[in-house]
Amino acid sequence: MSLEDIRVVVDAGESSPYRADALSGNAPVLLHELAEHVRQLVAAGESTAIDLNALPLTPADLDWLKATLGEGEISVTLHSDGESTLAETACPGIWWVNHHNEQGHVVSRFIEVAFVPELVKAHPEDVKTGLEHLESLIFDLS
Amino acid sequence: MQGPLIDTLARQGVTRRTFFKYCATLASLMALPPSAGRAMAEAMAAAPAASRRPSVIWLPFQECTGCTESITRSHSPSIEGLIFDAISLDYQETLMAAAGHQAEEALHNAMKENEGKYLLIVDGSVPLGLDGAYSCIAGKTNLESLKEAAKGAAAIVAMGSCAAFGGIPKANPNPTGAVAVSDIIKDKPIINIPGCPPIPVVITGVLAHFLTFGSLPELDKLGRPKAFYGETIHDRCYRRPFYDQGKFAKTFDDEGARKGWCLFELGCKGPVTYNACATVKWNGGTSWPVESGHGCLGCSEPDFWDGGGFYRALSMPADPLKMAATAAAVGAAAGVAITFANRAKKSSAKAAHETVTLADLEK
Ligand code: SF4
Ligand code: SF4
Question: DSSP 3-state assignment of B262?
């Protein structure tokens, strides 16, 4: 007998609280908080982030929030130690940020309110290194 | 974000963005605000060059090396290793290349040069029986070594349930007279990181906090960092709704077990165990004991080994009604300000908790 012969059944069932439609009612409140942060961004250029894992949100709440904020024009994928996606929502200035690990699991999740998320910008030191590389490419040509 | 550490990392192929992403996630796990992620990244990246990195001395006493295993086998060693690049680990028997007299010399040099400043990590309990003869290193009893190393330490981290609470060596009848670090050292800040073994990110999180803010994180009454030990397994368990509905698996292969019902009646100690397994999980977030179908053993609580049997249900009443009251409180708080709902949930959950200790199990 091998391990595969042992039947493993997971039955979420009718009454399972993990059904997709289990909304906690916490998500709509978050929209008000976001609006306040966007006002700050416009008025003072201040960016903020909300840690979604720190809030009592169900998977259904997150789906609702994501669907409600909608999809914007731009999304950025970062390939480093697992994929990260930074996608602007239909409300410019509000970004949905998911960090995955190498196994593809979400390790942290944020909503960032910013003109451009910090992570997207190139660091001046990296730009300098890039410039050196470019110069060496040009040097090789001559 | 600039500094020797970031340069070292760059050479290892770890980019600034990877590092920042790691710090953001670490801050999230530690329940710190997102801005703390950036602060950590800045502080750690600016960690000074090798000669001036904070010195860490790690002493193993009566232990099984499980704690070291837990940390060194964390799923992304290059990243968890980052934290270790920001410190100078001057003595760690299992990891260091030096042995014998060389190792002893390294230890004493580190203690002398960094007097009053080094962080002392201890894993394992300290045996007091037979004048400490049960466990000796380099001809010295653990008791002597601990006292000597603690003298010049800025703070002590008691790693794992043995160092924090005495752990398995202290289990009844405690043949070696094992005690915890805090039973011996009374005049230094001690931070307990219990667990058998502790979750890797908890130790790196505490180190990151020490490096970033130069202080130890906020502790609970058992000396554990609140960020990770602030809530019980039961508070964050995904099977909790079944507990609230009174749906319990009665054996490991019945219908309830298959449906993923609550493991309370199979001896789960989740309701009295403060640890982060339910949220952080194990093996790089793959799963954790309750998700694998086994109740929590209570490994991060004092005397978990003598709790009257891993498969014996807690004597506290399974009281779904009380839990319903907690849920209502959460609902009310959510209406006010969601950001604070989380905190409110913590305190209301705590208030609703009966103080049931593992000792109650014997009743
Ligand atoms: S008793 Fe155990 S399995 Fe049941 S909800 Fe609590 S922690 Fe989860
Ligand atoms: S689930 Fe319980 S026994 Fe298992 S590691 Fe976590 S705290 Fe320890």
Answer: strand
Q: Which residues of A touch B293 (CB under 8 A)?
A: none
Partners of residue A85 on adjacent β-strands: A77, A98
B169 HSE (CA, 13 A, CB side): 25
Ligand number with the minimum distance to the CA of B233: 1
To which residue do tokens 């976001």 refer?
A: A34
CATH number for region A8-141: 3.30.1370.140
Q: Measuring CA to CA, how many Å separate B213 from each of B44, B50, B219?
A: 10, 19, 15
Chain region(s) in chain B for CATH 4.10.480.10: 233-306
Q: How far is CA A52 from CA A56, A57, B43, B285, in A?
A: 8, 8, 24, 17
According to CATH, the topology of domain B52-229 is Rossmann fold (3.40.50)
pLDDT at residue A71 in the model: 95
User: What is the residue-averaged pLDDT of chain A?
Assistant: 85
- What does the alpha-carbon distance between residue A98 and residue A111 come to, in Å, rounded to a whole number? 9
Distance separating alpha carbons of residues B49 and B287, to the nearest angstrom: 38
Give the integer Cα–Cα distance in Å for B57 and A99.
33
CB of B302 sitting under 6 A from ligand 2: no
Q: Is B170 or B53 the better-scoring residue by pLDDT?
A: B170
Q: Which amino acid residue places its CA nearest to atom 3 of ligand 2?
A: B297
Looking from the CA of residue B195, the nearest atom of ligand 2 is: 8
pLDDT in tens, B112-151: 888 888 889 999 999 999 999 999 988 899 999 999 999 9
